[in-house]
Amino acid sequence: xxxxxxxxxxxxxxxxxxxxxxxxxxxxxxxxxxxxxxxxxxxxxxxxxxxxxxxxxxxxxxxxxxxxxxxxxxxxxxxxxxxxxxxxxxxxxxxxxxxxxxxxxxxxxxxxxxxxxxxxxxxxxxxxxxxxxxxxxxxxxxxxxxxxxxxxxxxxxxxxxxxxxxxxxxxxxxxxxxxxxxxxxxxxxxxxxxxxxxxxxxxxxxxxxxxxxxxxxxxxxxxxxxxxxxxxxxxxxxxxxxxxxxxxxxxxxxxxxxxxxxxxxxxxxxxxxxxxxxxxxxxxxxxxxx
Length: 290
Description:
The two termini are 34 Å apart. The protein has 8 helices and 7 strands, in the order H-H-E-E-E-E-H-E-H-H-E-H-E-H-H. By secondary structure, the chain is an alpha/beta fold.
């Protein structure tokens, strides 16, 4: 039985206040275990939204809570504990994939956001990251899928204006991590959901598939330029995930939104070129691809 299943079972039995106390104790324990495991394995840390799951080697979303911290946020986090800090179950021993909730790249460098991503990152900076860790940041897909085109329409500006502001905030946070002494990379946002797919309440979208992918292309191009200026690594497989007509290649998505493990076909050469071969060295799927 997984930790998540245990917590859900306890929640069904205990009064809410007692459950909150038990969950807190369990998360303190799992955070300590995860931290010590990271120190001993010298794994690469991936921090981000739900797209970090791809690097864990799991086809479907698969994580457990290591911190219930929400910093006073009203966001409950739902059944997946998205309101806290989660760690993906490792099918990839060289990676620690840390899920911070549905955080926006726009809000990463701001305190007091709904998800409290900045506060959560500070917790990791103080007690989880090792000196000179390799850290890969995975944010931005939610901004593009839900907010960019909507805000451009509301403010009557081109989507590039909205994206430029998001990129500045995003790179600002990565620069802080780099100044802490870490080696920092950015994983560019992937292609967007197809219009033909029924809208999942967990993964809403705004605008058309083509427009979102055009916005994603600009986002990645802008992000790559600014990252280079700030001496931050940048890797993306976005161009491999769309057609010439800016349609998403759905065969590389596991649930219509997140990358399938099939996408390692494109990710491995790009990561190898970036000097990040350690990420995929022990991946089971590598044997299938090569």
